[in-house]
Amino acid sequence: MKRILAACLLLAGCGGGGEEANQAAPTAQPRSGQPARAGELTVLTGLYEGGPAQRPSQLCITEGAGGANRFGLVVWGANDHSCSGAGTVSRRGQALRFTMLGDSSCTFEAPVSGTTVTLPAALPEGCAYYCGARASMTGASFTQKGTAEEDALKAKDLVGDPLCET
Cα–Cα distances in Å, from 92 out to 21, 44, 97, 149? Predict the structure, then answer.
């Protein structure tokens, strides 16, 4: 009988203070670089990827001077043909408006669904300038992989240099 009573007291002692300890413990915060809410694009800054895992197409977005968002992208096609470019990007409701900065005019809007950005099936003629032979950006899809600036800086251009810089 004494053993049962001792065991009950021991179990009661182990559970004591649990409520206070749980209340005092800090709330788990999302890991840096992870989307804030599953299924929703809440922050533009970060790294986006799409296509095959062995050579993913990449889109990076960083905050530029004066709060303007800058982007860089590489879209890989068959036989290592590719498209690449950089410029500014802004949010317009459920779409992102991309403007390439370069020798040819290329501005388009890409719809956002959840954390995925999909380039339109038809792009202005000037956008072809940013693609090699037999390569196209049309329909390329990018899913956000991280929301931190350091995630965006992991994206690489065609020769392995940083695609986005601060």
Answer: 45, 12, 7, 21
The C-alpha atoms of residue 153 and residue 110 are separated, in whole angstroms, by: 22
Region of residue 7 (phi > 0: left; psi between -120 and 50: alpha; otherwise: beta) = alpha
* DSSP structure string for 46-105: EEEEES-TTS-EEEEEEE-GGG-EEEEEEEE-GGG-EEEEEEEEEEETTEEEEEE-SSS-
Give the residue from 84, 90, 56, 43 showing the smallest Cα distance to 70.
Answer: 90
* DSSP 8-state secondary structure symbol assigned to residue 160: S
Separation in Å, CA 154 to CA 100, 114, 136? 21, 22, 23
- Summarised one tens digit per residue, pLDDT across range 52-90 is 888 899 999 999 777 789 999 999 988 889 999 999 999
Residue range 105-154, pLDDT digits in tens: 999 999 999 999 999 999 999 999 999 988 999 999 999 999 999 999 99
Model pTM score: 0.74
Q: 90 near 117, Cβ under 8 Å?
A: no
Nearest partner of 92 among 70, 106, 109, judged by Cα: 109
